[in-house]
Design brief:
Order of helices and strands: EEHHHEEEHEHEEH
Number of strands: 8
Number of domains: 1
Structural class: alpha+beta
Shape: globular
Strand order of the largest sheet: 1-2-3-4-5-6-8-7
Length: about 180
């Protein structure tokens, strides 16, 4: 397992995802408290996790990082669907269920948001969260995101339709808050 730290935080470090991490990722993504919260409805096998690694993690239009606390992987965070011309990206993350409520997600999000605006020159970050995921809504709001809208009945999870809340954060909003 790699010890290469890409971004350091107060509680966590963010490092590149390596093939050695795929067992952790597959195990945790299949945990009901995780797959439900991120809107997955089917299990992920080893070959699919390998495909994710090759097609998403290794793609130039994403930044995918492992969240590590005390040298232990606790989740992932990434900037997805980066649109270089319009300088936009979508923030996505999950924290392993055994590590919820410890501030790891907020610390990781603060680091990656700063990286997106300061290093990548992004203008806007977006994120989406399901109506039942109040913890994730709170995380986004604590980092400065504003709820911009709702896709009513946007996803079908656990046998029922769920609203999807869309959040956004503009660079100048973040800078005025951080300054």
């Amino acid at each position: 397992m790699s010890e290469t730290v890409f971004l350091s935080g107060g509680r966590v470090d963010l490092r590149p995802i390596e093939e050695d991490d795929l067992d952790f990722l597959q195990r945790e993504i299949n945990e009901p408290r995780i797959w439900r919260a991120i809107g997955r409805s089917r299990p992920i096998n080893g070959a699919q996790e390998q495909e994710f690694f090759e097609n998403v993690v290794c793609n130039d239009d994403t930044v995918q990082l492992l969240i590590v606390a005390d040298s232990e992987p606790v989740g992932t965070i990434g900037l997805n669907s980066i649109q270089w011309e319009s300088r936009r990206a979508e923030l996505g993350y999950w924290i392993a269920a055994d590590h919820h409520q410890q501030g790891y997600g907020s610390d990781a999000a603060e680091r990656l948001v700063a990286y997106g605006f300061d290093q990548l020159g992004l203008h806007k970050l977006s994120a989406r969260v399901f109506e039942f995921n109040e913890a994730s809504q709170g995380l986004l709001e604590s980092v400065g995101f504003t709820r911009e809208g709702v896709h009513r009945d946007g996803e079908f999870i656990d046998g029922e339709f769920q609203d999807v809340y869309w959040y956004g954060l503009l660079e100048d909003e973040w800078r005025s808050r951080a300054g």
